[in-house]
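Bumping my old thread because nobody answered last time. Still need a sequence for this structure:
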């Protein structure tokens, strides 16, 4: 397709969403449980990486900054992912805890937006997850100074070799600078695409540990 055709295609393509509704009386009163149900359905539908989520943070100049990370757990404390604590995202979080998450399960016409506060997870959680990772990923955590500038690809590969030599014949321990970040959710929006753009949007807000559900116009 030439460039003009692609532009036309992007401008004009329209898709009707399936008609399965999202109604107040059909959802769980607890949004975490509702999220677990949608995640279960996304996994059962065999979507590719249903636990991939867009994480938005705020940088020092007040810009939103987004990237995809993998949700690895939902604990009593919140939504957990793992990263390098020296990365841009982690520095932004330690400077400003306000974050948002977005899950898109387009094959199911579903989107979930979550807003919350992020903080460093405890070392038990991080050790536990780190030990479950393949050895190559463990080496990678040592080799990559995430978000810092590299001269070239070779510099990274040399660093990987260096780490392989360092840990040869021994267990790869978790680097102090790598671990869990937990997001305590304070706001959820469950979005379900419907016909004629009359989509369903149910928002949960929390006060004194009680969640309230509201419907938003699409
Ligand atoms: C599908 C997918 C999953 C990813 N999962 C993670 C993850 O769990 N943790 C992570 O640190 N980076 C993950 N990344 C890489 C991030 O998107 C990002 O490039 C990296 O963390 C550096 O981001 P930063 O410079 O904004 O800190 C993933 C990327 C993709 C496309």
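Sorry it took so long. Here it is:
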């Amino acid at each position: 397709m030439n460039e003009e055709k692609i532009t036309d295609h992007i401008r004009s393509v329209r898709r009707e969403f399936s008609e399965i509704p999202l109604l107040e009386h059909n959802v769980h009163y607890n949004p975490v449980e509702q999220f677990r149900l949608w995640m279960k359905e996304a996994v059962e539908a065999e979507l590719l990486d249903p636990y991939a989520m867009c994480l938005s943070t705020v940088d020092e100049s007040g810009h939103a900054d987004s990237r995809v990370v993998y949700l690895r757990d939902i604990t009593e404390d919140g939504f957990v992912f793992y990263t390098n604590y020296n990365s841009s995202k982690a520095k932004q979080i330690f400077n400003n805890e306000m974050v948002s998450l977005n899950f898109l399960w387009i094959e199911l016409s579903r989107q979930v937006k979550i807003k919350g506060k992020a903080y460093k997870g405890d070392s038990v959680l991080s050790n536990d997850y780190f030990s479950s990772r393949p050895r190559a990923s463990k080496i990678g955590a040592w080799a990559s100074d995430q978000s810092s500038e590299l001269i070239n690809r070779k510099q990274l590969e040399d660093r990987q070799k260096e780490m392989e030599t360092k840990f040869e014949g021994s267990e790869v321990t978790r680097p102090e600078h790598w671990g869990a970040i937990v997001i305590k959710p304070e706001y959820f929006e469950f979005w379900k695409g419907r016909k004629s753009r009359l989509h369903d949007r149910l928002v949960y807000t929390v006060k004194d540990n009680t969640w309230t559900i509201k419907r938003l116009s699409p």
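The mean pLDDT is 95. Let me know if any region looks off to you.
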